[in-house]
Description:
The chain is an alpha/beta fold and 703 residues long. The chain is built from 29 helices and 19 strands. The chain has an eight-stranded mixed β-sheet, sandwiched between helices. It is globular and about 85 Å long. The relative contact order is 0.06. Residues 22-23, 25, 60-65, 76, 97, 99-101, 104, 123-124, 127, 129, 131-133, 135, 274, 277 line the site of (2S,3S)-3-hydroxy-2-methylbutanoyl-COA.
Amino acid sequence: xxxxxxxxxxxxxxxxxxxxxxxxxLAQVVREGIHTAIQSxxxxxxxxxxxxxxxxxxIAGADITEFGKPPQxxxxxxxxxxxxxxxxxxxxxxxGTALGGGFEVSLACHYRCAIPSAKVGLPEVKLGLLPGxxxxxxxxxxxxxxxxxxxxxSGNPVGASxxxxxxLIDKVIDGSDLKAGALQYAKELVGADAPLRxxxxxxxxxxxxxxxYFEAARKQLARRARGQIAQDxxxxxxEAAVELPxxxxxxxxxxxxxxxxxxxxxxxxxxxxxxxxxxxxxxxLPKDTPTREINKVAIIGGGTMGGGIAMCFANVGIPVxxxxxxxxxxxxxxxxxxxxxxxxxxxxxxxxxxxxxRIALINGTTNYxxxxxxxxxxxxxxxxxxxKKEIFAKLDxxxxxxxxxxxxxxYQDIDQIAAATSRPQDVVGMHFFSPANVMKLLENVRGxxxxxxVIATAMKIGxxxxxxxxLSRVCYGxxxxxxxxxxxxxxxxxxxxxxxxxxxxxxxxxFGMAMGPLAMGDLAxxxxxxxxxxxxxxxxxxxxxxxxxxxxxxxGRHGQKTGSGFYQYDPETRRRMSDPEVExxxxxxxxxxxxxxxxxSDEEIIARCLYPLIxxxxxxxxxxIAQRPSDIDVVYVFGYAFPVAKxxxxxxxxxxxxxxxxDKICEYRDRDGEQYWQPAPLLEKLAKExxxxxxxxxxxxxx
Length: 703
Ligand code: T1G
């Protein structure tokens, strides 16, 4: 055994206890400890064995930090073999989240019990992997092919009662003492002379799987997870569970697992797993920085954003007061919220009664005085700095001392907003992404004077409402929107140079973006970018710059909301269709400004759209706007649907090679002009030193 695994006999039941905080991951010492304990239990007077974990959860999986390192004995399959071949029944006692290798350990046991709040799952697919310790062979045998395929390809956990229904566990232990309950259950099994029930002994009747089932599953999964490769291999493993004896199925699973664990897709997804958690750690903020209680929230503005933000808090039981300028606007705002909830109920994602209780938590007012007892206010009015300053001055006058005053602004200067109050230390940016009740990213913005506990509170409440948080300093557009400039610019420049809208968007959608930049512009509204450009004085005087966006808006083609933009949209289904009229206009506009169009490869489209993201990201790091390269990856994966299997723009740049990125940017600078293509000094430095952003990030963390 090891120091994190102990073994004791209690009333002739051998109890193996694992204690490897924070989540009892199956590090080498844990595997060795369990293996040794099982072996010694074969020789003692124990009549059965309980496998139990201390702390907050049963084993939550293999230790992801060990991936990519030389394997250490005993491997997990060896440990599972020892459990499964034990001469005495082994009972898994589950609480918390038995996930991945943790749940696979329990499936190698002969029986499984759990407390009602426990969850079990095989989320490996979210790391670009598949269950590599028998999960794809045991789960279908015990829960059926379809249930197992759904569970493994979604990666979503199931609660104890559902798991009981599915046959994944055998008993739900009532009461709070899992260990006592599991011991009792073990004694009952011994008393009943229960057999050593091994899942491997179950065979699946192939006739229970309808013709073409796996083929259809592959097609459906390919559509759902573009750019990811694990799903298809999971289907192959489940097929093996139907067609092959257990040991050959395990071999097939192992073979496909190794292909995945060494793949760039999985490396990218594991990078994002840790990046998401690292982003909550703020370098100059002590881990135990106190946070302020948030029991009551106010939202200023009941538009799409305000309504979505209000829902985020109501969804976790926090009462919300939404303020609008008059009753009519307030009614409209409440209507948006009800409509959003009704859609969720119709999709079967929310029971009707929960919708009612959440709506009941949101009330409306037109009177600022009623905000005098809230703990957090989030302003979500439209992007006018003067209006925001007026609102914050009012809030300063009515809100209690210690209330946090946040703005949902997507690029305005938080320091100027804070200066409109007598309490700049309580002012912070909390930038949600539309739709706020759906998008995972929350970009918190730290002003010059924002207090440490306000930052810590914004990060903590963000996690509580289910957001993935990243911290930005103040600059125009913070991290995400500032980087987006070059991406949008080049997507339209490419049209002038010879691409059609569908060619630009298809290249990026093949790369893995959920939606190409031009279709995204149509969705957001081309007039939004048009108005923002009108307000800017720093744009180069270049007839080519955003030419088509401007022409289309001035023709009244604002995108989906007017039925056409870069594309035509079906009025019923909103399906987008290429528009020959736009393609002809593009050629005309290029001719007008003397641009000679040419064939452009997908590679050039990808480089010209993505390298500006990378280059701006490097500047953002140099300026200290973002804490670390992986924070930028978190922003783009969770806020802009950058493909998780590419790991975010900075991780992707490291895979491409910074010298290759730098050289390509220099090539475009020399061809297209340095007003658009000025390599960031950090990018140039790292390219010349042969380093990666990841290495630079680690050096910064260590300094
Ligand atoms: N390995 C290593 N560290 C892990 C870990 C893991 N599996 N899971 C969590 N951590 C760390 C995490 O980085 C953080 O560290 C701390 O634990 C708390 O995590 C063979 C191959 C269990 C639901 O995918 O889903 O098994 O930041 O902040 O919100 O088939 O962690 O404190 O330093 O997320 O309460 C399969 C991944 C692995 C589960 C808890 N298992 N983990 O959530 O805490 S592959 C998973 C989670 C595998 C087998 C295959 C969540 C959680 P730090 P946290 P949480």
